Amino acid sequence: MSTLVLFIGASLALVVIPGPNHLYITARGLAQGRAAGLASAFGVEMGTLVHIAAAAAGLSYLIANSAALFGVVKWAGVAYLVYLGIRTLTSKDEVAGRTPEPQPLRSVFLEGVLVNVLNPKVILFFLAFLPQFVDPSAGSPTLQIVVLGLTTLTLGLLSDMLYAFTAGAFSERLARKAKTIRYISGFVYLGLGVLTAFTGRKAA
């Protein structure tokens, strides 16, 4: 229990600091409102479930210790974020006085999953930070990874929802400035792609 409390405290210090996932959720919330922000938040944390399963199965360790596999994950993430940025910046809006069609929430959710699954920084989190709290003498390491991972997911979801609600509130106020929001969102995605490109394996 003492280890879990320490892990929660350390995780809180990490999740409250704005990171790529927060920026992505904020961009979606600004572009399409609170519902889209929440959909992206739940998508991001669904991606965390994938990372938990991978870490428990040892796949994250394999990826981080294979330059080729880590490179595939890293550059797939970069390509996807750049694609989102370019798509957002080049989308047509305000044609005949109309704002662009809202993206289906299902698509927003799936984008959130992909953004997190393809985020090498999250892989490194489950390799460099979380294992420090696993004690082989305290029981099944796999079970401990799952419990710690779900704890991180819960804290992350609460933080993500706060960003989603905040971005949604600003979106309602800026509803008539669709073009400005589109540019903000597009450059956020491109910025995330650049940040991901500079993520190195040495952090593991």
Question: Can you offer a commentary on this structure?
Answer:
77% of the residues lie in helices and 0% in strands. The protein has one domain. It is globular and about 60 Å long. The chain is mostly helical and 204 residues long. The chain is built from nine helices and no strands.
List the helices and strands and how they pair.
Elements: H1 2-15, H2 20-32, H3 34-57, H4 59-64, H5 67-90, H6 105-117, H7 120-129, H8 141-173, H9 178-197
- Strand residue content: under 5%
Q: Provide the structure class.
A: mainly alpha
Shape: globular
Contiguous helical run count: 9
Order of helices and strands: HHHHHHHHH
Can you give the mean pLDDT? 77
Distance between the termini: 26 Å
Oligomerization category of the chains in this entry = single chain
Considering DSSP H and I runs of 4 or more, what fraction of the residues is helical?
over 70%
User: Which consecutive residue ranges, at least 5 long each, have pLDDT under 50?
Assistant: 94-100
Q: How many individual domains? A: 1
Give Rg in angstroms: 18 Å
The biggest beta sheet, please?
A: none
Notable features of this structure?
204 residues; mainly alpha; 77% helix
Concise structural overview:
By secondary structure, the protein is mainly alpha-helical. Helices cover 77% and strands 0% of the residues.
